[in-house]
Amino acid sequence: MDNAQARMTSWRVWWLAARPKTLWAAAVPVVIGGALAYDTEHFHAIAFLAALLGALFIQIGTNFANDLFDYVNAADSGGRLGPPRAVQSGWVTPGQMKRATFIAFALAAAAGVYLVLRGGFPIVVIGLVSILLGVFYTGGPRPLGYLGLGDLFVLIFFGPVAVAGTFYVTTLGIDSTAILAGLSPGMLSTAILTVNNLRDIESDAKSGKRTLAVRYGDRFARNEYLLMMAGGILLPIVVCALDKNHSWALLSLLTLLYAYPSIRKVMGGLSGPALNDILASTGRTLALFGALFSVGWIL
Questions:
Q1: Residue numbers of the domain that contains 265
Q2: How many domains does the chain have?
């Protein structure tokens, strides 16, 4: 093992394997759900923190499982266009990644125990389904990501389920606003996945990974990105029209100014490794949207 590889056996390996740029997809819907709950008289801070930790560890566990199963299924190769994967790069063994995946999901389950005690059976269902989907996104005999179902999974579970679920555990109640508002982070998270699939369209096709980009082509993926980005950012217009007491949440529309260069480049045909920058900027777009919407809702 050379010195460079030895240095990569430190905590930095696991930090990279956790894919920190994707963690916004887990954190933002919880923050938005917390902001909606904070506006009520029933906000519970400890439940909010438990929900945030649970969501982050589920995302990390999903990323670890994706790293492992894409290697097992030969979806990753030496010609990979995206950031390097830990197992494929030889930084960790498949056994180490399997144990890390188990630990991450165990920590998510530990946070979930408190939420179950507070919120009851609905939280059991949400937690178990989220963990199972995290594993079977790229694992199992028929992985969701390989069937083109990843987009739907991300839209629902990183959107209305996460936002409304957070609202529920922090207030022990639910309303339609939380479900509707949850579509915004769900759509922006789906845009992150779309960029990833657009970048990997050729390698995914060769490995049998039938994402929507592979199934319906390059132009479809670019139009999906536009729809998810524009729809997610503009949706607060509808939310605020229905709930007339939170017009400051329209501050989130400013996110469109930040997102425009990424949208223009994707629609202009940018491809290959250059889309890694778009992947990162789309994650930052989600973070900025979540911050502006949440602060605006509380004001």
A1: 3-298
A2: 1
